[in-house]
Amino acid sequence: MTPKISSSPFNNAVEQLASLPGIGNKTALRLVLQVLNRNQQEIEAFGKAFIELSNEIQYCNSCHNISDTTKCDLCASPIRNDNVICVVENILDVIAIERTNQFQGKFHVLGGIISPMEGIGPNDIKIPELIERINSVKPTEIIMALSTTMEGDATNFYIYKKLSHLDINVTTIARGVGIGDEIEYTDELTLGRSLLNRIPFKNTLVLK
Questions:
Q1: d(Cα 167, Cα 42) in Å, to the nearest integer?
Q2: Whole-prediction pTM value?
Q3: What are 26-52's pLDDT values in tens digits?
Q4: 123: which of 67, 113, 115, 160 is 20 to 30 A away, CA to CA?
Q5: What is the 8-class DSSP label of residue 86?
Q6: Alpha carbon distance 173, 199 (integer Å)
Q7: Cα 28 → chain centroid
Q8: Cα-Cα-Cα-Cα dihedral of 122, 135, 80, 191, to 10°?
Q9: Chain-centre distance for alpha carbon 113
Q10: 128 versus 182: which is more confidently predicted?
């Protein structure tokens, strides 16, 4: 356990940072000390950025990506293909795919994947919104770009079954992305090739 300093504001700042995933007490302590090395104006700007994040952040009504308005730039873009929707787990996956410059369609951010062990069911993420969007927009292709984990595969299959009665092409990224890998950690070249070489989802069911 990291010893506390006799300052309540300092200890509170350390505790708040340490509550973030992947940041332990020692890392939080070092980060707070780094902040304190800045001048007051820089510290206030730092704090203001997070207050604005909490008060002003919005999510796109269509794809659920982070946005400054009710419709994000990707959904509002006239040059993006409305007929292709790429389904991803989180916003980090949108960023990863955008970095490849290989996708010009639209996204749908689920905000998680089905995980019975964690008590997350289909209605706890943006699957109902996806089905409603598909029925409204009637795209020609849905790309399943979820993590290649057991939970990701289960989510893929659930969505595929929900769309099975529709005349729509459901594909998945090629397995250049290794089994068990998360999209956000896949290198750009591999992810880009996996998108370009996507295959019909039903073919993966045959392979299994």
A1: 55
A2: 0.79
A3: 999 999 999 999 999 999 999 999 999
A4: 67
A5: E
A6: 6
A7: 25
A8: 30
A9: 10
A10: 128
